[in-house]
């Protein structure tokens, strides 16, 4: 299996081909995606009107729900319904989901691997980009840490927004960490996560994803930020990252307090 797996990973890590996103394909499948988002996850997406009507924007979100990415499903569905499928949105996600069957489906939805320069290509083309700086580390954090924002130490997304002079719209989601019982890593420093999830019961590494529980997902898009307007002509990327993370943490704390019961919301 090593050969096929390496092939799938190399395909996922290839430079993004923006033409693979297929508006007609998305339009045909949007009703089913809407049912999954609105009925199964009871998705509540707020603040889409905060996103500028035209032009590129960098959506920066906290990530929950492991590699099954229920938060991305709900947000992409809502974005496509609100703005129309013709407005391009590209979501950067890890390579494993891009390799899952049916082949090519996620790419046709605009899901691309977070390779170096992927966001540059999309923003330069006038598209919007959704990125999760916390990646798998944040998405697979223990379920009892669901109320914690962890964007990590990387500042690439800040530098990208500054380079293209595009606004940053923070996106805060809650509920995804209730789609399974995430137990954290196998030992300190390990990159291997463990969770209790259907259908595997014990799921090690999230390599095969999981069938998510029907947890209620709530997502809030905050007002976009012109980085130079807020932080000055030559902002410190680390300070920008930390300030935006703190703003997202305040919002997430409020959203968590509003949840009454796990899964039910």
UniProtKB/TrEMBL annotation:
The source's domain of life comes to Bacteria
Q: Which organism is it from?
A: Svornostia abyssi
The organism's lineage? Answer: Bacteria, Bacillati, Actinomycetota, Thermoleophilia, Solirubrobacterales
Region (Disordered) residue ranges read 1-20
Q: What is this protein called?
A: Glycerol acyltransferase
């Amino acid at each position: 299996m090593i050969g096929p797996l390496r092939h799938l990973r190399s395909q996922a890590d290839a430079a993004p081909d923006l033409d693979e996103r297929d508006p007609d394909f998305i339009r045909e499948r949007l009703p089913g995606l809407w049912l999954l988002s609105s009925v199964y996850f009871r998705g509540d997406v707020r603040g889409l009107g905060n996103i500028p009507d035209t032009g590129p924007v960098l959506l920066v979100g906290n990530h929950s729900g492991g590699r099954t990415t229920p938060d991305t499903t709900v947000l992409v569905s809502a974005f496509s319904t609100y703005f129309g499928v013709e407005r391009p949105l590209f979501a950067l996600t890890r390579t494993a989901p891009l390799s899952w069957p049916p082949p090519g489906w996620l790419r046709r939805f605009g899901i691309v691997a977070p390779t170096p320069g992927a966001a540059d290509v999309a923003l330069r083309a006038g598209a919007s980009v959704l990125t999760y700086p916390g990646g798998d580390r944040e998405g697979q954090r223990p379920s009892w840490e669901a109320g914690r924002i962890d964007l990590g130490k990387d500042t690439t997304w800040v530098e990208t927004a500054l380079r293209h002079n595009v606004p940053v719209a923070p996106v805060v989601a809650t509920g995804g960490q209730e789609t399974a019982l995430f137990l954290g890593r196998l030992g300190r420093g390990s990159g291997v996560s463990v969770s209790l999830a259907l259908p595997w019961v014990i799921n090690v590494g999230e390599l095969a994803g999981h069938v998510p529980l029907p947890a209620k997902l709530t997502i809030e898009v905050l007002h976009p930020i012109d980085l130079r307007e807020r932080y000055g002509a030559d902002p410190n990327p680390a300070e920008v990252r930390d300030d935006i993370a703190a703003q997202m943490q305040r919002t997430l704390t409020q959203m968590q307090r509003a949840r009454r019961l796990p899964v039910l919301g």
